[in-house]
What does this fold into?
Amino acid sequence: MRSTLIILFTLALASTRASDKATTPDFSRYTQISLFRHTVSEQTNATWHLQCTNILAMSEFPMGGGFAFQSYVTDSGKKHGHIDVGLSMYRERGGQLSETDLKTLRAAMRDLPPESVSPPIERLVIVSFRDGTNWVTRSYDTGNLPKSMCPIYDIMRIRTRFVRSFTVQ
It folds into this structure.
């Protein structure tokens, strides 16, 4: 009887710890067109990102799953991005983050909430980042971003330039 209680208590503790962990984004609810599948596969490919020394990767689909904006930052602070539209890819100029921006970026990544959400695809932002030796992926709603995403967007200078350049009028 005593061993049964110990086992039940141990299982209860384990399930409590599991609920404290981050939720894994579920991308299955989105229409699985090839560009979306490819972007998600690339975004979540831990081996590739860790070999490339990336510390951050972001993907957005502001016009649906047939259009993707992706950006990356390496551990040395080099940033680059590109826009995929079907079979065409438009590279964006890269840049080098200052030490201050790199420190701010790392702090903001640590502060990202563990809960992932599944908004409409036009408001989906997928954020993956290095956490020690792990590659962690989360998803958020650009219409209701967590506070810690603001410095990431500011440092990356993504939103305003992207929206200005590629919004259909």
The radius of gyration is 18 Å. Strands lie at 54-60, 67-74, 78-85, 88-96, 124-131, 134-141. Residues 13 and 118 are 29 Å apart (CA to CA). DSSP finds six helices and six strands in the chain.
